[in-house]
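General statements about sequence and structure are easier to judge against a single worked case. For one protein, we set the task of working out the structure tokens from the amino acid sequence alone. This step matters because it turns folding into a mapping between discrete strings. The amino acid sequence and the backbone structure tokens for this protein are reproduced below.
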Amino acid sequence: MTAFFQSLGLSYEWAWTVATLTGIIVISLLVMFSVAMVIYVDRKVLGAIMMRRGPNVVGPFGLLQSFADGLKVFLQETIIPSAANKGIFLLAPIITFTVALAAWAVIPFWDGGVLADINVGLLYILAISSMGVYGVVMSGWASNSKYPFFSAMRASAQMISYEVSIGFVLVCVVLFAGTFNMSGIVNAQQGFGLGIINAYVVHPLLFPMWVVFFISALAETARAPFDLTEAESELVAGYQTEYSSMSFALFWLGEYANILLMCSLNTLLFWGGWLPPLDIPVLYAVPGIVWFLLKTFVFFFMFSWIWATVPRYRYDQLMRLGWKVFLPMSLFFVAVTSGYLMATGHFCETRTASPYREITDEAGDITSVVDLPEQKYQRCGSDAAWKAL
């Protein structure tokens, strides 16, 4: 895109700036449109499972229901409790919404289709996603109300607990891929399973880690059965209790943007991203973004299915699962994975070289060069010396 704006006569600096801003606007609009659509899908899936129709009045098949709801909350009055800290109260939903959008900067939708293709993309997502809890904590504290404050304490403990497990799961993925770059992780999955399956999840060491990641993603996004932060039977609406109008809508937009982010991470880290399921040439005729969106939608459907069918955990069960099950399990698999990769020479680099021998005279001048047979060399580690095989 930078080259396109340069062709219009802009200097490189201005072309890069305009291209980056254009990418930010396009991705933000697409994410917001996707959020509106998945809220509709969410309600339709819940309706089907509960044997009712779901949205079906506003627009064809009810497709415009989310936009009507957005217009309704936009026109409502924003009510701020008299005892609330006004500045922090209004800042909390803005932080939640902004952080949810910022993480999409490093998500590749297809090969090369990424706003910022940085080498530490996975670390960036971990850092940004961990900031999402600040909005929840700030809203709970600034509301100056008991139930939102309880919700804020739950949210902070819950997100910290499951981010630890997610971090160790991602270590296993990085060990296999050898990079923190999101596009590099996807490309490393091409033909990974039996030379034909484009996915890490088929490996016996990574399938359990995907299960841990998927369940931890539910907890990280406070999605059922781990929605203890907004448990309506206990906390009315949790940290959102005192919010109305657009401030309430920003929490919803941020929450669903985070859910879509976790669904896309499932796709990118374990299921081949934009690659087709099988490494067959004819499947590459389908654009990569189509495969990416299909896989992401499947995971969102699983999120909705779980919401409709699995009862809510108690808080002690939630903490027990995170600290006593997932944390030891992920630590164990990090050790096993690294040991397996070391034993199989995964970290070793092999090269073929054509050595030669120089023949010199008594004065030390080279008189001739004799080519020797090709020789393979290997080193295990970037600082290690090359050794002949």
